[in-house]
């Protein structure tokens, strides 16, 4: 397994452990940190393993951080509707 996929797997494990912990702000601060760490890891995975594997890792990350993606979609739809 390539080092980039190991990092992506560790990111996924860390995201799931963070989700198990209690949080007062509904994990939004942790989500920002995970996004900031996940984007370079996604680029590294795509660079090392190709675009199809990068797309699979992107979809996996979006399934873990689904609420930021949902809010981004709502924001984009609201901006496009004006």
TrEMBL record:
Keywords: Membrane, Transmembrane, Transmembrane helix. InterPro entries: DUF2484. It comes from the Bacteria. It comes from Seohaeicola nanhaiensis. The keyword Membrane applies. The chain crosses the membrane at residues 6-23, 30-47, 53-73. This is DUF2484 family protein.
